[in-house]
Amino acid sequence: EGAALATGGTRRGIVVSTLAEARFFAAGGFDDILYAFPVPRWRLAECSELARRLREFQVLLDSPQGLQMLLQNPLPAGKRWLVWLKLDCGNARGSVPKPRVSPSAAGIRPTDPEALALARDIALGSPELVTLVGVYAHCGNTYGCGDIAAVQAIARDTTAAVLEFVTA
């Protein structure tokens, strides 16, 4: 009910963090869902099934390996992978830096020289198989903030990083 209210009854344009949520909303008539986690290989079959079934099932990518995985597993004719490039604008999960290509990575840093190359590869590589929808950043680093000013500062920094990346 809440999601239907939030979408003005359209049942479109929702973001989920698990595939269980995606299946739940799909069963409830939602047909435009973004899975807000870089697609791990072990979840590819589930993502593919949702992408085939829904009008729009969108996923995140944050590595060249993820892009190759989608290119090597195309959807049926008339469908393509709808991809958002996941940027890590300072909210890497956990206190210890993780390798950028690990399954639990929180995105690619917008200042990483490979980030622009990856965006170009997604956008220009094989648009009939994989289409770049946009860039995505999640301010998970706000979870530990103690006040509104700290949240606003992170939001400003993230917005500036995303806009600088998109401009480049």
TrEMBL record:
Q: Which gene encodes it?
A: Dsd1
Alanine racemase N-terminal domain mapped to chain residues: 10-140
What is the protein name for this chain?
DSD1 dehydratase
What Gene3D superfamilies does its record include? Alanine racemase (3.20.20.10)
GO BP annotation list: D-serine catabolic process
What is the protein's species of origin?
A: Sinosuthora webbiana
What the entry lists under InterPro entries is as follows: Ala_racemase_N (IPR001608), D-amino_acid_metab_enzyme (IPR051466), PLP-binding_barrel (IPR029066)
Concerning Pfam families, the annotation shows: Ala_racemase_N
**Origin organism lineage:** Eukaryota, Metazoa, Chordata, Craniata, Vertebrata
Q: Recall the GO molecular function terms of this protein's record.
A: D-serine ammonia-lyase activity
The organism sits in which domain of life?
Eukaryota
